[in-house]
Amino acid sequence: MTQSSDVIIIGAGVIGCATAFHLAQRGISVVVLEKDAVGAGGTGRSSAIIRTHYSNELTARMALHSLRVFQNWGDQVGGVVGFERTGWIAIMDVRDMPGLEANIALQRGVGIDASLITAADLQELMPGIDTGDAAAVAYEPESGYADPHLTVNGYADAAKRLGAKIVVNCEVTGIRFEGDRVAGVDGTRGRFDAPVVVNCAGPWGARVASLAGIEVPINACRVQVAVYRRPAQFESHPVVMDLLQGAYFRSETGNLTLAGSIDPAEANAVVDPDDYAEHVDAEFELEMGEKFMRRYPPMELSESMGGYSSIYAVTPDWHPVMDEVPPGSGHYICSGFSGHGYKLAPAVGLMMADRIQNVADPEFSTELFRLDRYADDAPVRGQYEYSIAG
Ligand SMILES: Cc1cc2nc3c(=O)[nH]c(=O)nc-3n(C[C@H](O)[C@H](O)[C@H](O)COP(=O)(O)OP(=O)(O)OC[C@H]3O[C@@H](n4cnc5c(N)ncnc54)[C@H](O)[C@@H]3O)c2cc1C
User: Which of 89, 127, 342, 357 is the most exposed place for a label (fewest CB within 10 A)?
Assistant: First the structure.
């Protein structure tokens, strides 16, 4: 039996579910098709850090809008999202100071509470931290992290309450066109018709786009997270983005800390998103543990708790593709969030709904993220960026 709706979304990660929520809020009928379970892709293993530090105005504004949604989740989406306001700190080299100053000016200009702080301030925020090499330090008091499972399921449940359908265990195997327009998809649980199809398949984004005969430069790249249990007296700590060591550390409930890498070389770890090593490598666990203790010496007494791997959807400029391809076809791509899409998802859902509805004066334009920027050699660039920090 064929099912019909106004919009089909492929992929029930945080991006697909946020988009479904915004469309359903406008009375548009939506079917989300997910080959596995809600949140089974990169979203489910996201470190879910929420910060507003970006080096171009649009993404900074998107991050701020999204932060406000995470802070007011109950009113805006419903239920709880586990937002923890721990504050966010970035530690950089003295060479980064001019760029950092410029970024902070940009952020303050769009209303973000961000500032440069001294090593003494840093000690106060995180007693025991090693500030020896910390020449340039940024601080965002409002940032922190939330729970990615609560987030994606919160969006999915809210979309369902508004009439959306989420079909799990349904892999999309074909995208159908009639003339220049998309007409629907074929899935392992049947045929679905709609005049609009949105590819929110994250690390599978290129594979799904190829079903429509479109090439998108998105690679699935393996990334690892190591987990440590902190000594009992250290209840929580701010999120630390340690650019000097190329690592991030963030608290997790249960007195744990998650540690991961911030390294553009992660783009080289291209894998098959359906077949990659999901464990953490022993060397990575050791390396992150050493970095964590070097930065935060009281953690010498912490215990290694293993870890896991997951996948980023990485594009050449570490920014997503959000576009209708070909123009006027009703076929949209919204994938390739390159390791920083979780914190932006609330804004992205709004942007995609506005784009699909052709809203004349949207709060955020998707123009910067058009697919042909790669062919035009006009990648997204910030005024001053540090790999994934965008
Ligand atoms: C380890 C890790 C740490 C991260 N940390 C952060 C962080 O701290 N802050 C931050 O902002 N971002 C972070 N990110 C990035 C962020 O989590 C992702 O950008 C975001 O979750 C991507 O969501 P998505 O919906 O685009 O993709 P996904 O969550 O991967 O969802 C895509 C979905 O599409 C489905 N799918 C694929 N092919 C098909 C098909 N043919 N038919 C049907 N369904 C299909 C998949 O099963 C999947 O569920 C992290 C990511 C990882 C992996």
Answer: 127
| Distance between Cα 202 and ligand 1 center (Å) | 5
Q: What is the pLDDT of residue 2?
A: 87
Q: Which residues contact 341 (CB under 8 A, 6 or more apart)?
A: 14, 15, 42, 202, 313, 320, 348
Checking if the pLDDT of 18 tops 90, the result is: yes
Q: Is the separation of the CB atoms in 278 and 188 below 8 Å?
A: no
What's the rounded Cα separation, in Å, for the pair 309 and 218?
18
For the stretch 261-280, what's the b/e string if a residue is b when 16 or more beta carbons lie within 10 angstroms of its beta carbon? bbeeebbebebebeebeeeb
Whether 48 is in the pocket of ligand 1, judged by its Cβ within 6 Å, is yes
CB 170 within 8 A of CB 33: yes
Mean pLDDT of all residues in 171-193: 98
**Cβ atoms 38, 152 nearer than 8 A:** yes
| Residue owning tokens 């955020």 | 364
* pLDDT for residue 122: 94
Give distance in angstroms: CA of 20 to centre of ligand 1.
Answer: 15
Tell which atom from ligand 1 comes closest to the C-alpha of 41: 30
Full-model pTM: 0.98
So what's the pLDDT on residue 387? 47
Q: For residue 389, what pLDDT is reported?
A: 56
Ligand 1 site, residue 59, Cβ cutoff 6 A: no
196-199/7-10 β-pairing: parallel
Test site for ligand 1: of 337, 348, 351, most ligand atoms within 8 A of the Cβ:
337
- In angstroms, what is the span from residue 378 Cα to ligand 1's centroid? 25
